Amino acid sequence: MNTREEILAYGLSFPDTYQNAPFRDPNWQLVRVRNTKKAFL
């Protein structure tokens, strides 16, 4: 994994995950687990 897109795609490959952008800076993206809303990437 070398690019940001590859890393986000890997994080989203897990079940019940989604991408979240809670900050104003577009460089910050979180991958969260849908049921617990815990961020892991």
Would you write up a description of this structure?
- The chain has 41 residues and is α+β, with helices and mostly antiparallel strands.
- It has one domain (4-33).
- The chain has one helix and two strands.
- The chain has one helix spanning 4-12; strands at residues 17-20, 30-33.
- It has a two-stranded antiparallel sheet.
- The longest helix has 9 residues, at 4-12.
- The radius of gyration is 10 Å and the shape is flat.
- The two termini are 14 Å apart.
Short description:
This protein is of the alpha+beta class.
Short descriptors:
2 strands; single chain; alpha+beta
What is the mean predicted local confidence, pLDDT? 91
Low-confidence stretches: none
Order of helices and strands: HEE
* Shape summary: flat
Structural class: alpha+beta
End-to-end distance: 14 Å
Overall strand count:
2
Number of helices: 1
In total, the number of domains comes to 1
Topology:
Layout: H1 4-12, E1 17-20, E2 30-33
Antiparallel strand pairs: 1-2
